[in-house]
Amino acid sequence: PKALQGRVALVTGAASGIGKAIATRLAAEGACVVIADLDLDKAQATASELGSTDVAIGVEANVTDESAVQQAVDAALLAFGGLDLVVNNAGLSLSKSLLETTVADWDLQHNVMAKGSFLVSRAAAKVLIDQKLGGDIVYISSKNSVFAGPNNIAYSATKADQAHQVRLLAAELGEYGVRVNGINPDGVVRGSGIFAGGWGAKRAAVYGVPEEELGKYYAQRTLLKREVLPEHVANAVFVLCSSDLDHTTGLHIPVDAGVAAA
Ligand code: NAD
Predict the structure, then answer these.
(1) 112: Cβ below 6 Å to ligand 1?
(2) Per the residue annotation, which of 139, 155, 217, 218 is the catalytic one?
(3) Judging by beta carbons within 10 Å of its beta carbon (0-12, 13-18, 19+), is residue 146 exposed, middle or buried?
(4) 155 a catalytic residue
(5) pLDDT average, residue stretch 185-209
(6) Which domains does the chain have, with CATH numbers?
(7) What is the pTM (predicted TM-score) of this model?
(8) Where is the signal peptide (predicted)?
(9) ipTM
């Protein structure tokens, strides 16, 4: 059997970018996947790329909305009869300096990533505890949760909040066999809606490179001189959820080709 055969995954923000790559990998490993995102059509279109509704379904779920999050978890139970893997991936970056950041910007960043992943983890943990089968919760945090950089204070602060949720939940859910780990990606330019939606242009201007060269520019800053793609983050999610790491919890894995270690 495939490594994740019989397991059910919920991935937030999975209609595009890193989340879509994660959903694709988990499905390829045999999991049934719920693709949760803001837009139902986009979520369903992504799900249908993965296969029939026996394998993947798309649901509309704004992670800042408590009842929508509950409905996404319920959809997993209804469609696939359980829930085993949860990936907190939904996010956005406004990429603003301290003086540019409005209260609304601050609230949006924290609502989507800190509060959103709290709501998803809480709704999922209730199911995981009741099922008594253990489970995995993975947070897609960021290198920025640990390392400071200019012009994204609200983003980085909320990524640090997510990183601490990983440690807190690992402590609280360990006795139920639920592992909680995080991934710190960096420089996933190609395929990322965050980069395409404005962050890329801003970063390119800061570094003085054309936006279409940004992926290569990031690669040159890494120890491995490699560009990080959504698939590389997805690979790490799979490894974290595989039984080979079933004695690991509270860990953050960098997927940044070594930039944080440089
Ligand atoms: P992306 O824009 O392609 O994907 C983000 C997804 O989240 C989108 O599909 C979007 O619709 C969804 N989303 C946004 N707000 C939501 C909400 N309120 N409810 C539900 N879904 C919502 O960008 P990406 O680069 O693939 O980012 C995915 C995650 O990876 C984010 O959490 C991001 O912070 C993190 N990350 C990305 C990088 C990178 O280099 N691209 C680096 C570190 C961390």
Answers:
(1) yes
(2) 155
(3) middle
(4) yes
(5) 92
(6) 8-186+229-254 (3.40.50.720), 187-227 (no CATH)
(7) 0.98
(8) none
(9) 0.99
